[in-house]
Amino acid sequence: MLYQPELIGGHVALDLLNTVSWRLDPSRTVDRIATAEALATWRAAAGLSGDSDPHRVATVRAVVYDAVLPIARGTGPGDLRELQTLLAGAVRRATPAGPRPMDWGGANLVDELVLAAGRLLEREDLSRLRECQDDGCGWLFLDRSKNGSRRWCSSGDCGNRARAKRHYERVRAGRES
Ligand SMILES: [Zn+2]
């Protein structure tokens, strides 16, 4: 089946992390950008350019995940040294690309993703950073809802499953009582 990226993170750095599906359930974990073709599909959907090798992107993804997850779980910030090293290299190679004097564009896709992760940690409201509450999902997102009550990566996916499970449990409890 053709890969159709779901960009629900609210930030490209989180959409990168969400290219791993079922991250917290090792029996089901899938890397959606493990091939050059799948990576190109994701890159286009995310509005990015530049060639890169899926292995290098996976390495960056792992570093960004380690930096971001403790913040999403409220135990962070974690160890940012690896990300700092990647950022230093990306900034050295970067060229001005945005409206602000220090909005950098990456020299390649990997650098672009590293710079995006830096912007996430530098500029976004991290009190809004959440992990989907599904046990196996592991997707991360910025909760941009007005009242900050978003619990699921997607209400039509993990949210639906949770509702169906609660319904099933209620029905079963009703039958047993
Ligand atoms: Zn989810």
From TrEMBL:
Pfam families, per database record: ABATE, zf-CGNR
Highest taxon listed in the record's lineage: Bacteria
Zinc finger CGNR domain ranges (all copies): 128-170
Protein name from the UniProt record: CGNR zinc finger domain-containing protein
